[in-house]
Amino acid sequence: MKFKKILAAVAAMSFAVAALAGCGGGSGSSSSSSGAKTLKVASSIDFAPFEFQEESQKDYQGFDMDLIRAVGKEMGREVEIQNISFDGLIPALQAKNVDVIISGMTINDERKQSVLFSDPYYQSGLTMVVRDNEESIKKFQDLKGKKVAVQIGTTSAAEVKKIEGVEVKELNTPADCFMELKAGGVDAVVNDRPVNDYYIQKSGATGVKALEEKLTAEDYGIAMGKDNAELQKQVNEALKKLHENGEYDKIFAKWFGEKK
Ligand code: ARG
Predict the structure, then answer these.
(1) Three-state SS at 51
(2) d(Cα 175, Cα 183) in Å, to the nearest integer?
């Protein structure tokens, strides 16, 4: 009697698992192999409002975090997120320690040499932050002869190095860059626009301001291993679904307000 009950419970459970896996396939004709395998995600949790951690909370938060959890759900895979410093993300992917990166990572040709990118999921670009009382820096060209902090391994680092006569300080996180600016160790921070804006508006940062001028226009993508075209296809299908069913817009509105 007891044994039968256990059997029934096991049967019900495996049915539930199969149903879960089945509904996430996205394309309808989902290949059987995608099962309930965990989707291992790497992100550099230092980039509000895309990926950050609030002291009181154990789960990582942000636009990217919500998006990748939704992508995982579409794929019928449990999502497990690891915090890895930005310059360690691509190496972690190459070592196959993780399946994908989502980290406000800009799609560019250099990175395409070592990873595959999903379709773009967010339009971004670089701006700069200076101290409130800064008079001599109004545009990027004014950075000549100035000290500028950037996060190591980012497009900001690469772009600022192209401006002649800039002394570039590469630090571990955007927060380190802002701290250095406030402490007077650098004259400006170059970083992604939405992160600069969030820092100034939401975190109540005082004594600093973001400038309007954009140095670049950039698109963010989810990255996966060079040899993982199948996963790339699945991620793109999931993203497409989320655009179609309104879930993407919901997540966008949660972090950035309604789309203009
Ligand atoms: N978009 C820039 C890049 O791809 C900066 C990304 C930084 N991301 C982060 N989570 N810290 O280089």
Answers:
(1) strand
(2) 12
**Helical ranges in 106-192 per DSSP H:** 109-112, 155-162, 174-182
Q: What is the tens place of the pLDDT at every residue in 214-226? A: 999 999 999 999 9
Dihedrals phi, psi of 19, to nearest 5 degrees = -65, -40
CA distances from 43 to 68, 90, 234 (A): 11, 10, 19
Per-residue pLDDT tens over the stretch 62-86: 999 999 999 999 999 999 999 999 9
Which residues, listed in sequence order, are joined to residue 117 by a DSSP beta bridge? 223
The answer to whether residues 86 and 194 touch, using CB atoms and an 8 Å cutoff, is no
- Confidence (pTM): 0.85
> Ligand 1: does its nearest atom lie under 6 Å from the Cβ of 191?
no
- Best mutation site among 63, 67, 103 for ligand 1 pocket (most ligand atoms within 8 Å of CB): 103
